[in-house]
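Late entry, written up from scratch paper. The run itself happened at the end of the previous shift, but nothing got recorded in the book at the time, so transcribing now.
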Amino acid sequence: MQGISTPACLEAERAAIEADAQVVALEQAVIQGDEKVTAAQIASQRDLAAFAKLRLESTRRKAEQLHEQQRREAPAGLGAKVCPLHRCDAGGRPAR
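Output as recorded:
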């Protein structure tokens, strides 16, 4: 599913990366001696990061399902034109 790249997929991936970066930033702040950061803040950010990853997976799956639907509905040989998210073979199947 990594091959699908839609604006929604890219946005979801960006959100997941940012959420992970926030976890690392909070952990590093604690390591550097910041006593204002709490365990609850880190736990909450970890939960947000995990949720962002779930959203990313959902977005990727939806994009893949749409791709497959378009591939199935496309006349033979038009797969690449109908579904530009992948390079497709003459039968509209993703080239691997």
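The CA atoms of residues 19 and 49 lie 5 Å apart.
(Scratch paper discarded after transcription.)
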